[in-house]
Amino acid sequence: MTPLARLRGALGSLRLRLVLAGLVALAAALAAASIGLTVLFERHAERRLVRELSETVESIAGQLDRGPNGEFLLTRPPFDPGFERPLSGHYWQVQHDRGTVLLRSRSLWDEVLDLPHDDLSQGQDHTHRIQGPGGQVLLAVERQVQLPDRLGGQKLRVVSARDAREITDASHDFNADIRPFLLVIGLLLLAAGVGQLAVGLAPLRAVRERLGAIRSGRERRMGQGFPEEIQPLALELDALLARREHDIATAEAEAADLAHGLKTPLQVLFGEVGRLRAAGDAATAATLEDVSLAMRRHVERALQRARHAGGAPETVTPLRPVAASVLRVLRRTPDGARLRWLLEVPPELAAAIPPDALADALGPLAENAARFARQQVRVHGWADGPWALLAVEDDGPGIAPEHHAAVLRRGGRLDESPGQGLGLSIARDILEAHGGALELPCTADGAMTALLRLPLGPPLADRTLTPGDGAASAGAD
């Protein structure tokens, strides 16, 4: 099987489809959460940095003064080691509103901040991203300050700036910290989704179990008790089952009518056979008798198919007594009286099939073995996993492997050929109606073997055989 075919087969699972859809949705949700949280953190970090820069601007504006020679100075410079370290990314500057720089931090070294030309209102802060020393991108906050008359009454622009990479670096650190947390959240959500999936699909498991009970005969209808999304399906299935039962009952009635309608003509034909023999026309009598027997056999098969087409409520049947009963009848027939019969079935072996259905399936196979066996027919059974197996072996010519499919096919037959099995198709129909199967395994010596495969029933305790069961003992003649 190719990988593509395996993938298509796997996608046929509703559970796998829901899991894959949940994983895709979960991955998309976690990715969106990561991106959204990062954006929110960057905005928060930027607002906080702007607030710090604004406080620095306010501190510088409050410390402006003039020296003995009329020069501007700060009575107390802002306390930040970054303002003293050259090109540290922490800068401040005071300039005249006409562009002349009056004061600046030591960190600017011999550089100045190039501020945009915009109109400022008194006491209003403006936030910019500007180019700084060494190509740094700076986040800057500036404010226009009106000096008091004692300082000259001039308008100055005070600006404080920080490297914008602080926000990016903080965002990266935030992402590194939040990823394990998102992973844990994802695993918890995945576990919750799997639990939800199990709860959601539980009704489908109940549907499967109820259908299995119907197929085995323990139940007849789906009934109530399903969620409202599944209850309509259960009702439709119940309606289908009711229609099937009606069709089966109709088929049984028609088969019974057919058998009743053919009974009288067949009796007439058998009467004509006797008169022809008495009149000395043995060849015509033999031909007419063969045709009559074939007609009766087909009618009986039609009745058996109709009786077992719908299955039956689950019944655990011990295989040995039923097989013994069938063999006891066949031992009294001309073909069976000349043979040695072996029955090797454990007394505790049981199958989920009604006794009459088992007898109807086993009877034609054992009769077929009696007709074509040379000296011996062996019926033996054993358990194999969930199955109870019952084999009918004879030492006759058997059926060629290339003809197995024909005789097992519904309606197929090799009746016209000498040495071929009879009743195989009807036995197969009965077994399949009860969850079993009929197989024709090839044996090393070419002998005919019919293998009945039935659902295994619970073991039965050893039972005491009735006197009539004596013929069923292993090795009985």
Task: Please characterize this protein's 3D structure.
It is a single chain. With 477 residues, this protein is α+β, with helices and mostly antiparallel strands. Among the domains are: 65-166, Beta-Lactamase; 241-308; 316-472, Heat Shock Protein 90 (2-Layer Sandwich), CATH 3.30.565.10. The chain has 10 helices and 14 strands. It has helices at 3-10, 14-62, 165-216, 231-278, 282-308, 319-330, 334-337, 355-372, 404-408, 424-433; strands at residues 64-66, 72-74, 90-96, 101-104, 125-131, 137-146, 155-163, 316-318, 340-344, 350-352, 376-384, 387-394, 437-439, 448-455. Strand 13 and strand 14 form a beta hairpin. Helix 4 (231-278) packs antiparallel against helix 5, helix 5 packs parallel to helix 10 (424-433) and helix 8 packs antiparallel against helix 10 (424-433). The two termini are 53 Å apart. Residues 410-422 and 461-477 have low confidence and may be disordered.
- CATH topology descriptor of the domain at 316-472: Heat Shock Protein 90
Order of helices and strands: HHEEEEEEEHHHEHHEEHEEHHEE
Shape label: rod-shaped
Residue-averaged pLDDT, rounded? 81
Strand content: 15-25%
CATH architecture of the domain at 316-472: 2-Layer Sandwich
Percent in helix: 40-55%
Main beta sheet? 5 strands, antiparallel
Name the strands of the widest sheet in spatial order: 4-3-7-6-5
The number of helical elements comes to 10
Extract low-pLDDT stretches. Answer: 410-422, 461-477
**What's the alpha carbon Rg, rounded to whole Å?**
48 Å
CATH fourth-tier homologous superfamily of the domain at 316-472: Histidine kinase-like ATPase, C-terminal domain
DSSP E strands, number: 14
Q: Give the CATH class of the domain at 316-472.
A: Alpha Beta
Structural class of the helix and strand makeup? alpha+beta
Distance between the termini: 53 Å
